[in-house]
Design brief:
This protein is 15% helix and 42% strand. The two termini are 19 Å apart. By secondary structure, it is mainly beta. It is globular, with a radius of gyration of 16 Å.
């Protein structure tokens, strides 16, 4: 049975509604900004577009020996591409918010296929906007707690496996 070699997750701040999966040795963005697209791909990185700008989202990272099974219908969209990872150590750039390094280490540097998927973007966006109707004081503890409960519900998945 094909199982992931390793898995990790991180809560990511989508600065200006985007974040980037990077190789930690080459953290300069080489992918174009995604604009209205869900994803954009460069030679060594991938931008992902979120519906959030004020909530952290969950990013699951998986390393596989070979192509993982097809994703189920609970994922709203997915895209598979190929990128080169000079160190094989994966991180996330949150643009002006900073970066998270050493989130996932792949078996070796090289070219990898990466399947990226997302879910719950619209659901979380609508729930966040509803908080402004529910709470009179957006600086109060009730609003802050409700906002914190939404963090991580918008989810992204990045599955890596060696390019055949």
């Amino acid at each position: 049975m094909n199982r992931p070699l390793s898995t990790r997750y991180a809560l990511v701040y989508p600065d200006y509604g985007i974040f980037q999966i990077i190789d930690c040795a080459q953290d300069e963005p080489d992918a174009p900004l995604p604009g209205h697209d869900d994803f954009s791909v460069g030679e060594r990185s991938v931008f992902l577009r979120s519906f959030q700008t004020n909530l952290r989202v969950r990013l699951d990272l998986e390393s596989w020996r070979s192509e993982p099974p097809t994703l189920g219908g609970e994922w709203e969209a997915d895209h598979t591409t190929v990128i080169t990872l000079p160190s094989g150590v994966i991180g996330v750039s949150e643009l002006t918010y900073g970066a998270q390094h050493d989130l996932l280490t792949l078996p070796a540097p090289g070219r990898y296929r990466i399947r990226i998927a997302h879910r719950n973007r619209r659901l979380v966006s609508e729930a966040y906007m509803a908080l402004f109707d529910r709470f009179d004081d957006i600086r109060g503890s009730g609003f802050a707690a409700a906002k914190r409960d939404l963090e991580g519900r918008e989810q992204y998945l990045a599955q890596f496996w060696p390019e055949p």
